[in-house]
Amino acid sequence: MLGSGTHERTPECSGDNPIEVVLLATELKASRKFYAEQLGLEVIRETSYAVWFKCGSEGAISISENTTGTADEQDQATFRVEDVRAEIAELRSRGVEILDYDIPRVRGLVLG
Cβ atoms within 10 A of the Cβ of 5, count? Predict the structure, then answer.
């Protein structure tokens, strides 16, 4: 119970539940095409203002149309893969531009 002084773990809000990442896009149709066709994610729900994609066994990414899009320059979502080189090769074969970046204490790849 909220405010009771006890901190019990409730099933509605725990680390045991799947997570859905929400990203914003200024061009929903272009984003849908990228995630579905180039990344190969399965569309699990779609409305006039958002598209949801299956990620893993229970996770999801939703792309919502917004006039500003996602303005942050930091990573918004990451995928854990067994063989990053194989995944990069597959993504490149689908026309995804892979950008390599190297900044202090962080090294990674960005889908461009």
Answer: 5
Taking only the tens place, the pLDDT of each residue in 62-100 is: 999 988 876 666 556 777 778 888 888 888 898 888 877
Residue 30, sorted as left (phi over 0), alpha (psi -120 to 50) or beta, turns out to be alpha
Write out the two tokens for 106. 């962080």
Q: Containing H/E element for 54?
A: strand 50-55
State the CB neighbour count (10 A cutoff) for residue 31.
Answer: 20
| Those residues with Cβ within 8 angstroms of residue 64's Cβ, 6 or more apart along the chain or in another chain | 22, 23, 24, 25, 28, 49, 50
Kindly list the structural domains of the chain, giving each domain's residue range(s) and its CATH number in brackets, ordered by start: 20-67+79-111 (3.10.180.10)
Tell me how crowded residue 97 is: count the other CB atoms within 10 A of its CB: 10
In a 13 Å sphere around the CA of 109, the CA atoms on its Cβ side amount to 14
Q: Look up residue 53 and give its amino acid.
A: F
pTM: 0.67
